[in-house]
Amino acid sequence: MADKELTFSCTQGAREDVVILRLSGPFTLNNMFPLQAEMRTLKPPCLIMDLTDVPYMDSAGMGVIMNYHVAAQDAGHKFFLVGINERLRALIEMTRVDRVLNIRDSVETAEASA
């Protein structure tokens, strides 16, 4: 069965230096390439990726997140994940990247941490 479409949108955060990237749909190898291309152009001082509407993610989706995390760190930028459901949390904890990623409960708490 083919994956449903992954859609995404960028909006300005409460502060000028914050961009919120909202994803909707499964985040998998079959549908990650448009998002990956967009993320290569995103270089705000703080990016918050909202995964509230992402039902599941595979290792390719995790790879996109980790690549952006490393690039943001190298540039001295902040990167937060919010809206993680139990299925996503299980993948993040199983791969032990919860130890390096900045995960917050909501966009608001991420912005307060920025």
TrEMBL record:
Q: Where is the STAS domain?
A: 16-114
Q: Check the UniProt entry and state the signal peptide residues, or none.
A: none
The record's listing under Pfam families reads:
STAS (PF01740)
Q: Which GO terms describe its molecular function?
A: anti-sigma factor antagonist activity
Q: Which family does it belong to?
A: Belongs to the anti-sigma-factor antagonist family.
Q: What is this protein called?
A: Anti-sigma factor antagonist
